[in-house]
Each structure stands twice: as structure tokens, then as C-alpha cells.
Design brief:
It is built from 5 helices and 7 strands, in the order αβαββαββαββα. The protein is an alpha/beta fold. The chain has a single domain (18-175), classed as 3-Layer(aba) Sandwich (Rossmann fold). The strands form 2 sheets. A 4-stranded mixed sheet has the order 1-2-4-5, covered by helices on one side. Strands 3-6 form a two-stranded parallel sheet. Helix 2 (40-45) links the parallel strand 1 and strand 2 (50-54). The N and C termini lie far apart (44 Å).
Length: 183
Amino acid sequence: MQSLSRDHVDISTEVLHPESLAEKKYDFAISFGYRHILGRECIEVLQGNILNIHISLLPWNKGSDPNIWSWLENTPKGVSIHWVTESFDSGDIALQKSVSLNPEDDLISTYEDLITEAAFLFHLLWNDIGILNAQREKQNGAGSTHRRGDLKIHEKALTSGLQTKCKDLMEYGRSNNLWVNFD
């Protein structure tokens, strides 16, 4: 059984370049809250050994602001760890978990709940399963994708910024025909 070395971990919020990844000879990369897209060259240098931790139940709410969109569109809530590919948040699932969130809470507290669940899931993958043993299960269904700019036309829904109650976002989404039909 192979194991990853836990001797050296680098953390970066900067844009990663294939040359620097190749130079440092990384075995693996974990993306969590990384706001940049990893291009084909970076994926190739790491031989596809990149996992992303995403606070949505993929394939729902790929991309930006997944917590907000799950309330606006009334889509499933959860966390996913998936393999990074060139297609945006579309790689095979390593682990995922549905999370029950309270609509009476605000965006900040539900975001914190999702982060806690994501950290738990990663801990399970790292310590109990082993990253090199992680499964690769195809995502099912089309789901939804959102870019950073998509939220701009619905900013008025965030009446109290990130302290907006999730039930208020749901009501806004329902009244503006944003809810996803699962039929």
C-alpha cells in the first residue's frame, strides 16, 4: 500500500503555475476555498492527483457561491470531495455527504456548518480511507453551475449581506422562479 508523505505541506492562495509545480515535484494537491481555476497543464504536472473540497452536493451548485445558490434554487445541500478535471467542478466524486441545514439560520452559520462537514469528510478521507485509495464515482445528472458574476442580478436577495436568513433567500428564489424542478 502506498502512502503520501506528511513531511511537507505548502499552502498557497496565489495562482499556481505548472512550472513551479513541476519544480517542487509535488505528489498531490488539495484545493479548498482556492479561488483560481487549475488549468490542464497543472493537472497534467500532478498527473491528475488533485482533489477539490467543495461545499455543495455535486453536481449541484458547481462554481461560485454554492451555499447561496442552494437556498435561492432550493437544491440539495452538502459537501463533496472530487477529483479535479478541466471541466469546472465536474470530476469524479471521492466522497460526499448530504447536510441538513436550518433555513432559520443565516448564510454565515450555514457556511460554517458546511466548512465543518467538509473538514470532517477530508479528515475521514486522509486518515481512515487514504487519499490514494479514494474512489472515483461519476457525478450523476446535470446539476447546476454558477459563475462569480451570476449572483449580481440577485444581490437584492442578500438584504443583510451574509447575515441574511436562508429562509428569506428561499422565499426570494421561489418568488423569482429560481427553484429547480426535480420532476
